[in-house]
């Protein structure tokens, strides 16, 4: 399949940006899913030792991928400890 893509790019050089942007989009999507799977507190890989990882988050822990105008270092806890 890779050989076919290279042959098409040699015959039609205008397809090269299409292949680049499609590859970059697929790579970005795969990396985002990997980031969610490894660092999101909603995902529990070890249910015996850490069944509810979201309860161990403090008010200063930033778990969002991108947050606008929120400084997590200055937040205070609003609820009780569980």
UniProtKB/TrEMBL annotation:
Keyword Iron assigned: no
A GO cellular component entry from the record: mitochondrial inner membrane
Record keywords, A-Z: Electron transport, Membrane, Mitochondrion, Mitochondrion inner membrane, Respiratory chain, Transmembrane, Transmembrane helix, Transport
Membrane topology of the entry: Single-pass membrane protein
Subcellular location field: Mitochondrion inner membrane
Parts of the chain that traverse the membrane: 15-39
Family the entry assigns: Belongs to the complex IV NDUFA4 subunit family.
Name listed for the protein in its UniProt record: Cytochrome c oxidase subunit NDUFA4
Organism: Nyctereutes procyonoides (Raccoon dog)
């Amino acid at each position: 399949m890779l050989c076919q893509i290279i042959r098409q790019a040699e015959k039609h050089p205008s397809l090269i940006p299409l292949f680049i942007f499609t590859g970059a989009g697929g790579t970005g999507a795969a990396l985002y899913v990997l980031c969610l799977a490894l660092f999101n507190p909603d995902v529990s890989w070890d249910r015996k030792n850490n069944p509810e990882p979201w309860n161990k988050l403090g008010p200063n822990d930033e778990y969002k991928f991108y947050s606008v105008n929120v400084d997590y270092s200055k937040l205070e806890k609003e609820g009780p400890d569980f």
